[in-house]
Write a structure and sequence with these properties.
Length: 242
């Protein structure tokens, strides 16, 4: 059974989502304001958090930022109304895994939830029960979902971390853009391969000393991307991202 936290101040919406999540064999906890929602999110373990953007006390962006400071990863599906000012890029930057704009259909909501669960399972299967990865001055702490260079933590979005772990867990293996897209975003994003390119570029900007001459994440021209084979990695140990 999956544990789901709904943080939504509209009780009718929260109740409706609870009913349909129950059909997916999910146990639901509901919070109706940001303060209670944040407390629940930080003190209990969940498989998914459904998070409204506009809430009393704390808004969804603040809650998402605080959740992402926690060592334990939980996917976040953010809800927002069409009438609300919402920068979708900002929402994803602070750590939301996906978002839905109100009003939305229940079928679409359930499809997004299922996609998130599938993506988490696919990543877990693809990366296996990997131990922490240390190569050069880069360290990936898998269970904590933490990345550091020379001991300095690098802030990554959930998708950036998943992308890095996917590649680093299989050094030398090339993944096509389509494979990465399906594994990390799901099949509903077919045709958006440019999303992979932009995430690769942003990830490189955070972990590479020189993005024009990457050491860790290499391009397999005409195919996709791969993590450099460990024996080939030579880095400047003085490099530090501030």
């Amino acid at each position: 059974m999956k544990e789901v936290l709904i943080i939504e101040d509209d009780k009718s919406i929260a109740d409706l989502l609870e009913i349909h999540l129950g059909d997916l064999n999910c146990k639901v906890t509901k919070s109706f304001d940001g303060k209670d929602g944040l407390r629940n999110a930080l003190t209990n373990a969940y498989d998914l958090i459904v998070l409204d953007l506009m809430l009393p006390h704390y808004d969804g962006l603040h809650i998402c930022k605080e959740i992402r400071k926690n060592e334990h990863y939980v996917p976040v599906l953010m809800l927002t109304s069409k009438s609300e000012e919402f920068d979708k890029v900002l929402g994803l930057e602070v750590g939301a895994d996906d978002y839905l704009t109100k009003p939305f259909g229940i079928k679409e909501f359930i499809a997004r939830v299922k996609a998130i669960f599938r993506q988490v399972e696919a990543i877990q299967h693809e990366t296996g029960n990997h131990k922490d990865i240390t190569v050069g001055n880069l360290k990936i702490e898998v269970s904590k979902r933490r990345v550091s260079i020379n001991g300095n933590r690098i802030e990554l979005t959930p998708k950036e971390f998943d992308l890095l772990l996917l590649l680093a867990a299989h050094p030398g293996k090339t993944y096509t853009r389509e494979q990465i897209l399906n594994l990390l975003w799901g099949y509903q994003y077919n045709g958006y391969e440019h999303t992979v390119n932009s995430h690769i570029n942003r990830l490189r900007s955070k972990i590479e000393a020189d993005i024009s001459n990457p050491v860790y994440i290499l391009t397999s021209w005409g195919v996709g991307y791969r993590f450099n084979e460990l024996d080939n990695i030579q880095v400047n140990t003085e490099f530090s991202k501030g």
